[in-house]
Amino acid sequence: MKTVIVTRPAPESDAWVDRLQAQGVNALALPLLTMGSAPDAALLESFQAAAAGYDACLFVSPQAVRFFSDPRWTQATGRCWAPGPGTAQALMAQGVEARRIDQPDPHAPQFDSEALWAVVASQVRSGHRLLAVRGLSPDGHTGRDWLQKQCEARGGQVDTCVAYRRLPSVWTIDQMQQARQALVDGSVWLLSSSEALSHLVARFPGYDWSQVCALVTHPQIALSARNMGFGEIITTRPAITDVLAGLHALT
């Protein structure tokens, strides 16, 4: 089986490498994103203090959970929305009871906002208060806001808290050499965001990606990879069993 290049941020990337290697897959962590502290610490603290007063808190990723961590909301009674099992597991690791967590059905075709909305839509009505905990990119974007718009269309109120910053990771000389080797030796690049994909392409300007294989965890990332000229693109859910099935399809 081909080597898998795991591009998720640390420490997720190391955890994924461990899971893959436990299944007999050769894997290497080359994070394309790193997470930094919130740009406004005082504003973050004010949202942490007020979070227990919201009907629900949406955490867009495990990083959102980690950077927002605060006992004032982990022990509260409001709902916690998670777009996938990784975020749900991060919430439970912070002490949130499983009965407070809403997440997509384990058999959902994809773990994303649409799948989560199918579970939480019935909670939202006029006056519903949602706190969306997100990250901020260098270009000022906080990410896709489809679910927030669905809430607002039903009369809900949505506030957004920026709990962390998403930044391009800084590779060592050895990591850069590993990446160059992976581009030509048939390795599979496991990509979990279009933003990470754009950082990869930016590191190798002018490179011909037609001979590079991408294993992506959402159709939108697949579209981005196709637009950037990747040759072979496999789309799968961001779960270890699905990723393994995608890898076996390549061999």
Give a structural overview.
- The chain is α/β, with parallel strands linked by helices.
- It folds into two domains: 4-32 and 169-250, Rossmann fold (3-Layer(aba) Sandwich); 36-167, Rossmann fold.
- The protein contains eleven helices and eleven strands.
- Strand 7 (129-136), helix 7 and strand 8 (157-168) form a beta-alpha-beta unit.
- The N and C termini lie close together (6 Å).
- The model has no long low-confidence stretch (mean pLDDT 94).
Looking at the overall shape, the CATH architecture of the largest domain is 3-Layer(aba) Sandwich
The low-confidence runs, each spanning 5 or more residues with pLDDT under 50, are none
Helix content: 25-40%
Q: Structurally, how many domains make up the residues? A: 2
Q: Under CATH, the topology of the largest domain is which?
A: Rossmann fold
Q: So how many helices?
A: 11
The proportion of strand residues reads 15-25%
Give the strand order of the largest sheet, numbering strands 1, 2, ... along the chain. 3-8-7-4-5-6
Shape: globular
Class computed from helices, strands and strand pairing: alpha/beta
CATH class of the largest domain: Alpha Beta
Radius of gyration: 19 Å
- Give the N-terminus to C-terminus distance in angstroms: 6 Å
Number of strands: 11
SSE pattern: EHEEHEHHEHEHEHEHEHEHEH
The biggest beta sheet reads: 6 strands, mixed
Average residue-wise pLDDT: 94
